[in-house]
Amino acid sequence: MASAMAVRISGFLGGRVQLAQEERGHQVGLDAALLAAATPSATAGLILDLGAGVGAVGLCAARLAPKARIGLVEIAPETAALARENIRLNDLEARARLYEADFIGAANRRAVGLIDEAAAVVLTNPPFFERSSVRVSPDPAKALAHVAGAPLADWTRAALALLAPGGTFAMIHRAEALSECLSALEGRVGGLAVLPVQPRDGAAATRILIRGVKGSKAPLSLLPPLILHRSDGAYAPLADAILRGVRPAPL
Predict the structure, then answer these.
(1) What is the architecture of the domain spanning 7-243?
(2) Which H, E and C letters describe 149-201, residue by residue?
(3) What is the residue-level pLDDT of the chain in tens, covering all 251 positions?
(4) Which residues 6+ apart lie within 8 Å of 202 measured at CB?
């Protein structure tokens, strides 16, 4: 672990995953837990977590799909160092590997040993914002987590290059980016299930969880929303079970 950083370790997925995170950097939140919950539990092949950060999604996927191998793909050196430490912290060295690379470019993927069409599942939580649309954080780690270095279409194209035909693709994004997400996946992923995520009953969705199959021609399904909180602020029962890793996402 990079010793210059102030780091704290906290439990995730109901304590089944331990995560070392930089105290002042980008913090893992609900998005990672929701995306990990889209993991097919019977997966026995390779699961890639693209834009992995400290590895929350991929390491949770390792718990949810105990027969799978895990690849964490992260570009930022200090964040990648934490992801490596988190693999060790969770005793997953035999099943998980860190790829420190910008996976958008095919040459970059090959240079670190990533093989196109080798993954059974690809999970990704892309940066939500274009650089021109927001004020970029001066913190490099936060900037990389929140602001895209490439258009969503390029990010998605590269992600799907790593996914085997018939493999499962899952992504979480802002609800208002639904049209852009569907456009990026059109003609490449079918059988799409779109799960709106609402902070509470009656509120507008703030997130969308999307899952589909590479090469499928099946139609899109818009699912009933997942409600995160009850009126008293506590987690709704289904959301609580998903965040603790007891139930999969209803996709």
Answers:
(1) 3-Layer(aba) Sandwich (3.40)
(2) CCCHHHHHHHHHHCEEEEEEEEEEEEHHHHHHHHHHHCCCEEEEEEEEEEEEC
(3) 444 567 889 899 999 999 999 977 778 889 999 999 999 999 999 999 999 999 999 999 999 999 999 999 999 999 999 999 999 999 999 999 999 999 999 999 999 999 999 999 999 999 975 645 444 445 454 444 444 568 999 999 999 999 999 999 999 999 999 999 999 999 999 999 999 999 999 999 999 999 999 999 999 999 999 999 999 999 999 999 999 999 999 99
(4) none
Query: Contacts by 87-94 with C-beta closer than 8 Å and gap 24+?
Result: 87/55, 87/59, 89/9, 89/18, 89/19, 89/20, 90/17, 90/18, 90/59, 90/62, 92/59, 92/62
Cβ 124 vs Cβ 155: under 8 Å? yes
| Whole-number Å distance between alpha carbons of 51 and 123 | 9
Give the residue among 201, 193, 203, 197 at the shortest CA–CA distance from 223: 193
Q: What is the pTM of this model?
A: 0.89
- Tokens 């007891």 correspond to 246
